[in-house]
Amino acid sequence: MHTTVGIIGGGPSGLLLARLLHRAGIASVVLERRDRAYVEQRQRAGILEQSTVDVLRACGAGKRLDAEGLVHDGVELRFAGRGHRIDFPALTGGRRVTVYAQTEVVKDLIALQRMEGDPLLFEAEVHSVEGVDDDRPVIRYTHEGQERTLTCDYVVGCDGFHGVARTAVPAGAATTYERAHPYAWLGILAEAAPNYDELIYAHSDRGFALASMRSPEVSRLYLQVPNGTDPAAWSDERVWDELDHRLGRAIPLVRGPVTQKSVLPMRSSVTEPMRFGRLFLAGDAAHIVPPTGAKGLNLAAADVVVLARALAHRYATGSGELLDAYSDTCLRRVWRAEHFSYFMTTTLHTDPAQSPFETRLQLSQLERLATSPHAEAELAENYCGLPL
Ligand code: PHB
After folding, report:
1. Which of 95, 233, 256, 287 lies at 20 to 30 Å from 57 by C-alpha?
2. Cβ < 6 Å from ligand 1: which residues?
3. pLDDT (tens digit, 9 = 90+) per residue, 129-151?
């Protein structure tokens, strides 16, 4: 098979790129290793920046998002026994965020691709990517028990940090900058109506907690836990009790059946450059942010918007100028989001090796956020995201 752009990975970045290319009249094929049900259920983040919402609308995926997404005008920071609300529109000239789960974005994009797009193959396992440094890249993969090849003009790796695309970059051609964090998140999904209107990010004497939501009926909640924690060690009751303690509100959470419980590692990582020859890396294949601040999905969307524009420019004019600028253009935004995610993570979590001095510094930083409009605006601007 031959196509213009071979896309490895059918998560949000691969699917969104396929939609954007389809709109620009550029052919693509998406190869996804997992089956459709798995991809549609994989629990991930749930906060969309305004520019991500705009892109989804522009590519026809805005209908359910507009009907079911919850528009949020702020978040609450809790620390030292009190709460402080950050008002996004007031601090950013009207920007806000939308709560709409990544799983729903993925379902909407798959449905569209199936209705009017180019091929999207599930259970297509890529083994190798060859020839990205000359002008005929080849992707070798297995589908329906058959070994197949996909030749293309360009390959885009949207297959995550552990994907095949990253391994096609020769050693020495790229540098990965990394930071592991000395804690993880225990996340639960619960059939319980959130009794808070906006997300709550809490610093506490027992570590970080976050109250988020998926809908008016479903809560999504997180606790900082030690690396290597077994979710089975946390009974539902223990999770709820700990959340109530750390969130430190006057009103306890509404409890309900816990339908999912899992532990998420926390990592920061950036690979530079994001391009090697005819191979482009996008989303988690190129960079990982810890989830505090909800930047991962939004960064992935920003990458593929930049790439789709560059490819459209290349096919409309013959000029590779924007493709040449892809990595630098994306990395500016990536490093800003890395810094913000790192700031949110290290300000709100308790490092097991942390001294009381460092805890006082965190509280001073949170106090500053609660008293200085400049500090608040800095957080709000980063949280809502820079325009694309
Ligand atoms: C989520 O709802 O999954 C979520 C929200 C905010 C974050 C991280 C995760 O910072």
Report:
1. 287
2. 45-47, 199, 210, 212, 220, 291-294
3. 999 998 889 999 999 999 999 99
